[in-house]
Specification:
heterodimer, A: 84 residues, alpha+beta, globular, B: alpha+beta, Aldehyde Oxidoreductase, domain 3, five-stranded antiparallel sheet, 4 helices
């Protein structure tokens, strides 16, 4: 299982802050996970589209599209940060 | 939101204090705490970020900040470690508020102590620039035009980029 967490605008539009999911066989990195989640429906497809500048962190580190994801990881999706 | 944590850590002699809290902070008290008992400190640089009443052509009544607690600690520690590797600094205190704030409220405090002013000024600016583009905080504003998430600014990316 992988723990997915969502923050800020994504948390609101997707309607959840976290979930545990079992990864399909062919999902092994950030790009394939994002693609899989976009298949859930319109709001997922729209929010996670490349043009939305969605940031991803794997196990609390900023990740790239090619970053690997494995069982037990925490993957966070969020908009560009606006603190300070 | 009773979210508050604190930790102290020695990073190659640097005393690092990082706190995320809903409560306000007292600048004088934070500076005193940092300086206490260290006669080698010759300069302290501070940055205080405040809530403005107007943003992107709308009047801001309130602002709510959220963060990703587990990652925040790590991101802020990484930023200070980078500052320490670039400049000869001694101690750093970083306080960031979350929750609901109003115009003129204090949002963030960065205090850097060093032997000389050059390193303190530079490291303080670097930490703020990196914090604004790398630490997982998000602002939502309540304005006269409704609620909206604050958009990240390209100018903040540019500011962080110049340190590369």
């Amino acid at each position: 299982m992988v723990n997915l967490v969502y923050f800020a605008r994504l948390r609101e539009t997707l309607g959840l802050d976290s979930e545990k999911v079992a990864l399909p066989q062919d999902v092994g990195d950030v790009a394939s996970l994002t693609q899989w989640l976009r298949g859930r429906g319109k709001v997922w497809d729209t929010e996670l589209a490349p043009g939305n500048r969605v940031r991803v962190a794997v196990n609390l580190e900023v990740a790239e599209q090619s970053t690997c994801i494995a069982d037990g990881d925490e993957v966070a999706f969020f908009p560009p940060v606006t603190g300070g | 939101m009773a979210m508050k944590w604190r930790f102290f850590r020695r990073l190659l002699e640097v005393k690092l204090t990082i706190r995320v809290q809903t409560e306000d902070f007292d600048i004088a008290a934070e500076v005193l705490k940092l300086r206490r008992g260290n006669p080698k400190i010759g300069a302290v640089a501070c940055f205080i970020g405040l809530v403005r009443d107007i943003n992107e052509n709308a009047t801001v009544a309130e602002m709510t900040l959220e963060h990703y607690p587990a990652m925040t600690e790590k991101a802020l520690t990484d930023i200070v470690e980078q500052a320490k590797s670039r400049w000869d600094i001694m101690d750093v205190s970083l306080v960031h508020r979350v929750g609901t704030l109003k115009p003129m409220d204090q949002i963030v405090l960065v205090v850097v102590a060093s032997s000389h002013r050059g390193a303190a000024f530079a490291a303080c600016e670097f930490i703020v620039d990196y914090l604004k583009t790398r630490a997982p905080f998000w602002k939502k504003e309540k304005t006269d035009k409704g609620m909206r998430w604050v958009e990240a600014r390209d100018s903040d990316d540019d500011a962080a980029q110049r340190w590369h």
